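Schema walk-through. Below, the input block comes first and the output block second. Nothing else is stored per chain. Lengths vary across the set, and this one has 261 residues.
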Amino acid sequence: MIPDSEHPQVPAAEHTLRILRHLAARTAPVAASAIARDLGLPRSTVYHLLTTLAAYGFVLHLREEQRWGLGTSAFELAGGYARQQPLARLGRPLIASLADRIGESAHLAVMSGSDVLYIVEERAPRRPALVTEVGVRLPAHLTATGRAMLAALPREQVRALYPDASAFPSRTGLGPTRPSELRELLRSIRATGFATEDGQVSAGLSSVGVAVIDRSGWPVAAVAVTWPEDQTARRDVDELAAVVDDTARELARRLQGRTGT
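--- output ---
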């Protein structure tokens, strides 16, 4: 082992990683003093490292509350992890089984900033091609997967991602256009346990999505199914959501190294 004296930045790197891991395990942003106390670090060190992390977007300082949370660059790391396939490899057979069970196209996505990034798609037979191909990014506030994950994020994090009306791009002219509308939408999603979208991504197509929650309560991904709206044979959204929820829960168990209920 190389002595720390030859690499004086090693302790700083270790402290930085401990701070990021600590923030990732919290369900809401925390004060710097609490981080210093919980990790046994000097306050001056914690403030210095948080300031540096904030400059690169890895943490976010909520000035009014004097608290710190993960920033959008941390989400980008999560997207990078997903692109390296571990999550996709675990999710692919479950998404394929979901598509077979429901008879509709299914997909798996992760958050990347204020977008969702699709990492698995399984198209059902005789169903139309979707825009949610692997590698595609879409605005999270418009998609069922994105809404499901946003509803599970700390509210402070959502406010940081959507500070004003400029953060709400549109595809079909539908969907929330300002923070207050998004807050109301996410409130209803938390009440039902699943998210929907009807024509906000592609006209004539609807989706229902459920977040995949890790053991710390963080939404690491979301599962969804998409189907063409047919007025003569409408799908039961609650019924679809229950099946999607089963898949999301099973993926969460597999990510934690467990199977079964």
